[in-house]
Amino acid sequence: MPEKGFVHLHTHSEYSLLDGACKLESLIKKAKELKMPALALTDHGAMYGAIEFYSLAQKYNLKPIIGCEVYLSPRRRFDKVAQIDTSPFHLTLLAKDNPGYKNLIKLVTLGYLEGFYYKPRIDKELLREYHQGLIALSGCGKGEIPVLILNNEFKKAREVAAEFSSLFGKDNFYLELQDQNLPEQVKINQHLQKIAKELSLPLVATNDVHYLNKEDANSQDVLLCIQTQSTLAQKNRLKFGSSEFYFKTYQEMERLFKEVPEALSSTLKIAESCNLKIDLDKIYLPDYQPPSDYDLNSYLKRLSEQGLERRYPHSAFHTPHSALRTPHSASRIPHPAFRTPHSAFRIPHSALRTPHSALRIPHSALFPLLSPLKFQSPAEG
Ligand SMILES: [Zn+2]
Ligand SMILES: [Zn+2]
Q1: What's the CA-to-centroid distance between 169 and ligand 2, angstroms?
Q2: Of 11-20, 255-264, 367-376, minimum mean pLDDT range
């Protein structure tokens, strides 16, 4: 491991929707240009860019680290009460290996399926179950520990740090230092370093990259306005607080963290311990078996018709001339559309639920099409 250097382990791309202004390829090119040995992608609550990022990193011969900045519900993920459960904490997760990648996928999926409340949220119960193969960094100013520090709950902050450390394992949990010239970060960083000393926990520096260059901060601000439905002129709107959330060089990071060089070398250590290999030539789709009286097409047709009747009980679609009832029905989506590993994942669920679409087919109805493909999980592959 080189002694000096820096790897960005907390990076948002355009897949942090309306909150990240970096294109994946430009992120990777920037890391290469700055001679960084690796780069992590940690979009907010989702992994939409993971495969594209992984492939591009391979193309440019850069080590990719797949991660996610997850939302952690303050109580259980099933608790969804206004005022109490509206502000989830942030936590940075990185996949070390294939089981870690699988666990990350599981966590993100359950965040949407079970914990969704304004944001896809997981909880500590899920982390206890699916933490193997993951490295956790304590997060930005919205992490649980920084929030407690800002609320002067120092004892609780230490307890939570100890809890995360025992949950992920001592080598897999880092207290995350950030310095984007925000006044509250002085207090947060001071106390994080104190906790690190008291509990012998490692520190790591990140820059929570949201845009590539300093001058892109304005574009990021516009994105944020679109997300929060506000205007640039509005005074009391959500803002970043500085224009320092860009892809900094090692020298810039070194200047910020000269008092804590171990926080910089930790990034290299973490990058070395992350060695995920994804086989992009394999197809990872479920093998769906229709009920015994059906073949794949006839079962899809049945599900489509049932769905149509449920959603449009008085619709003209039910006439014998309906497009969906002919053998060449719209529901007969040709197999090739689902044959490539990427395309199936790229079709947003919502596209199948467009209010006026003839393709309002229940999601499950599409599964029969996937049947000829054998499911194989990355860990097994
Ligand atoms: Zn954050
Ligand atoms: Zn972030």
Answers
A1: 23
A2: 367-376
Amino acid at site 70: V
- For the chain, helix (H) and strand (E) counts, in that order, are 12, 7
* Residue 35 three-state SS: coil
Q: Is 199 exposed, middle or buried (0-12, 13-18, 19+ CB in 10 A)?
A: middle
Ligand closest to CA 71: 1
pLDDT in tens, 151-195: 999 999 999 999 999 999 999 999 999 999 999 999 999 999 999
State the fold for domain 24-273.
TIM Barrel (3.20.20)
Ligand 2: centre distance to CA 12 (Å): 6
Domain residues of the chain, as ranges? 24-273, 296-370
**CA–CA separation, 190 and 154 (whole Å):** 11
Give buried/exposed letters for 91-128 (b at 16+ CB in 10 A, else e).
Answer: bbbbbbbbbbbbbbbebbebbeeebebebbbbbbebbe
Ligand nearest the Cα of residue 208 is 2
Do the strands 134-137 and 203-205 form a parallel or antiparallel pair, or are they unpaired?
Answer: unpaired
For residue 11, the ligand closest to its alpha carbon is 2
* Residue 361 contacts residue 303 (beta carbons within 8 Å): yes
Q: Closest-lying ligand to the alpha carbon of 16?
A: 2
DSSP character string of 152-190: T-HHHHHHHHHHHHHHH-GGGEEEEE--SS-HHHHHHHH
